[in-house]
Design brief:
Layout (H helix, E strand, L loop, with lengths): L7 H17 L2 H14 L4 H8 L3 H14 L1 H5 L7
Helix pairs in contact: 1-2, 2-3, 3-4
């Protein structure tokens, strides 16, 4: 089982991204922010994948990318064409 721990400030920034994504209608940023927030709160990756409607591999990829690129990657998602 994988356990991640985010600082209080990272969790606050993820919550702010979640709110901003919801207001702007950016579904991809919303889903990624929510997944990362849930990871930081201790929810399992399989449960996150099921609840968001993506594969376990997708959640792992989001987590890995976040670990390498940080919060700027999450904030910059709205610039990327999906």
């Amino acid at each position: 089982m994988l356990i991640l721990s985010f600082s209080k400030s990272v969790l606050e920034k993820l919550r702010a991204n979640l709110t901003a994504a919801g207001k702007s209608g950016n579904i991809q940023m919303y889903r990624i922010s929510l997944a990362l927030l849930w990871l930081g709160e201790g929810k399992s990756i399989p449960d996150i994948a099921k609840d968001i409607g993506v594969t376990v591999k997708t959640v792992f990829n989001w987590m890995k990318t976040f670990m390498y690129k940080g919060m700027d990657w999450v904030k910059g998602i709205h610039y990327k064409v999906w």
